[in-house]
Amino acid sequence: AGAHTLAIQTMDYADHKRELTRITVNMPAGNHNLHSTDSIVGNLRAIPTGTYQQVGLGLDPPVQHTLTRKIAVMEMEVTRKMWADLRAANTNLPVDPSDFDHSPNYPNPVNGVTWNQALLYANLLSSKQGLTRAYYKDSRFTQPLDHTNYQTEPYYCNFNAGGYRLPTAR
After folding, report:
1. Which distant-in-sequence residues (6+ apart) come within 8 Å of 119 by Cβ?
2. DSSP at 144
3. Which residues of 95-120 are buried (b: 16+ CB within 10 A; e: fewer)?
4. Is 16 helix (H, G, I), strand (E, B) or coil?
5. Rounded Cα gap, residues 47 and 68, in angstroms
């Protein structure tokens, strides 16, 4: 219970951390906020509805965001192991784009991922886990984004889908 901080950070090649943004979430008493555990990406944490303050680079004054429905968020960033595990299950995922000199181990985050690859990862993970994909090539959500069409826009997100997606506002 109480305030928990979610921070998004980058780390350069010299292992210097730089915080990009952070929000504070107040969790009700008795809520340990574990939503579920996924076989590939691990723990998902439940974020309740409410208004949150975002602070970070270039946000002066801070920005208020209101969640009108609860969401589940991965506990940590996508690691090279998570990427490898999904690729082992679905070879349509491109090879790990990470710079192995600077991210040599599987616990390290994947780096060098394009926006297109991140959307494909979310859709392939959703399919693997039996969830409805969130990303499509058409606004009617009839043509899913997949390995044959992910490299070019347009992209459309079905925010009502039960699958994985990037934590972006609509």
Report:
1. 135, 145, 150, 155, 166
2. B
3. ebebeeeebeeeebbbbebeebbbbb
4. coil
5. 11
Nearest Cα to 72, choosing from 4, 1, 164, 9? Answer: 164
The pair of structure tokens assigned to 143 is: 């043509």
Q: What is the spatial distance between Cα 151 and Cα 139, in angstroms, rounded to a whole number?
A: 17
DSSP class per residue in 50-71: EEEEEEETT-SS-EEEEESS-E
CA-based end-to-end distance of the chain: 29
| Residue 128, CA atoms < 13 Å, CB-side half-sphere | 22
Q: How far is CA 137 from CA 36, 57, 86, 166, in A?
A: 29, 32, 22, 16
Taking only the tens place, the pLDDT of each residue in 68-109 is 888 888 988 899 999 999 999 999 999 999 888 777 778 888
Q: What is the pLDDT of residues 41-72, one digit of tens each?
A: 999 988 888 887 777 767 778 788 888 888 88
The rounded radius of gyration (Å) of the Cα atoms in the chain is 17
At 146, list the tokens. 């997949």
